[in-house]
Amino acid sequence: MTEEKKISPYPDNIAIIGGGRWARVLTEVLCDIVPPAVSVSVHTLHNAESMSVWATSRGLDGRVFVSSEWPQFLYGRSNAVIVANAARDHEQAVQWALSAGVPVLVEKPVALSASATQRLSDLANRHNIRFAAAHVFLFARYLDNFSKLVADAGDIQSLQMHWTDPQLENRYGEQKQYDSSLPIFSDCLPHILSMIGALTPNLPGKCEIAKFLRGGACLEIEIMLGDIPCIISLERNSEKRRRLITATTGQKMLRLDFSKEPGIITDGSTTIVGDPDWEVKQRPIARMLTAFLTWVRSGEYDSRLDVEVGLRACLVIDKIWDKYRSAMKSWLVDSLSSAGPIDDDLRYALYELLQSKDRLSGTEVDKQIEQVRQQFPKADGAQLLTELNRTLYPAGLH
C-alpha cells in the first residue's frame, strides 16, 4: 500500500454503535487502519451474540470488544463514536454521544428529518464537539476523476442517476439487505445528492416524483439544481446492481459506471478506469475513517465530513415525503381493490408501511392483511387501507 496506512496519534477508544452488515464492514476496515493499542468496541442491543460470533470468525475476537450496552468512556482518554445502527435509531445514538462530549461520525441519513439533523448539529456546535456525516462516496477517487473531467467539458446541461439493487446481493462477503422500514429515496438520496454536489455547486430546488411503481420499490425523481434538470431513477429488487451517473455538457456526454468499483468512466469515445490506484491506495471507507480520526485527534478538518451535506439531503427528503405518501396511498388503494393474492409489490409497500412502526415478519404482514380482507370481504381498496391503518398502524398514511 503506497498511501500511508496508519496515522498517529489516534483516539484511545473507538466505539461503533450498530449490529448490522455495515457496522461489521466499518469495524473490519477500522481494525486494519488503527494500531492494536487503540481500543475498538462494537455496541448493539439486539445483535451482540451474532457480532461476537462474527468477530471470532474474522479473527477479531481478541481485538474487538462486543457489548449490548452503551459505551463506557474512561476519564482522561480520547474517544470517538461511529454510529452505524438502523436509520430510525441514529438520532438517539448521536444525541447520546454528543451529550457525553464525544466526537461522532454518523452513517447516512444523519437522521430521519431535517429538523432532527439541524438539532443535532446545533447541539454539537453549542458544545464544540466534532460531528461528521459519513458520505463515503466523497472519498472515492473515481468520483474525483469524473468530476474533473466534467468540469473540463464545460457547463452541465443535465444530469441523470441510475441507482438499482437486486433482491439478493453479496457485498463484502455478506448478503446485503436494505432496511424495509426506510423508503428507497430516504435510503439512497444522501449518497446520490452528496455525489451530485461534487459535480455542481447548485443546490436542489424543485423536487417531483415523476414515476411511482411497484409499491414504491421503483421511483423516478426529478430535481432542479438551479437551471440544471436532474433525473434520479431508483429501484429495489431489480435484476441487477447499477450505479450510473451521466452528465451532459455543451461539448459531450460523460458517464461514470461504478456498479462494480472502481468503475469505468466514458468520456466521449474514450473509456478509462475510474481509479487506476484502486489496488494500491486506500479505498473510500478507509479514507473516510482516516479523515474522521485525524480530525478527532489533530483538528485537521476535511470538508467532505461536513454535516451540512447530510442536512441538505434531509431537506430534499422532507420535500419529497408528502408527495410520496400521496402516491403510495393511491397505489395501495388500487392494489388492495384486487381480490387476488398478495404479490411481491403489495408486500413490499405494506412492509414499509407497517415496519416503520413495528418489526413484522412477512408471514405476520400477510396474515394481518388476510384477516382484514376476511373481516371486510366487500370493502373497496380505500376502506381496506383505512382499516389497515386503524388496526395495524394508526399513524399510517393520512
Architecture overview:
This protein has 398 residues and is α/β, with parallel strands linked by helices. The chain folds into three domains: 13-133 and 283-305, NAD(P)-binding Rossmann-like Domain (Rossmann fold); 138-273, 2-Layer Sandwich (Dihydrodipicolinate Reductase, domain 2), CATH 3.30.360; 321-392, no CATH class. Helix content is 39%, strand content 23%. It is built from eleven helices and 16 strands. The protein has an eight-stranded mixed β-sheet, covered by helices on one side. Strand 13 (242-249) and strand 14 (253-257) form a beta hairpin. The longest helix is centred in the C-terminal third of the chain and has 30 residues, at 307-336. The radius of gyration is 22 Å and the shape is globular. It starts with 12 loop residues before the first strand and ends in a 6-residue tail after the last helix.
Brief sketch in words of this structure:
With 398 residues, this protein is α/β, with parallel strands linked by helices. It is 39% helix and 23% strand.
Per CATH, the class of the largest domain reads: Alpha Beta
CATH homologous superfamily heading of the largest domain: NAD(P)-binding Rossmann-like Domain
How much of the sequence lies in strands comes to: 15-25%
Helix content range: 25-40%
Tell me the CATH topology of the largest domain.
Rossmann fold
| Regions with little confidence, pLDDT below 50 for 5+ residues | 1-7, 393-398
Global shape: globular
Strand order of the largest sheet: 10-11-12-7-13-14-15-16
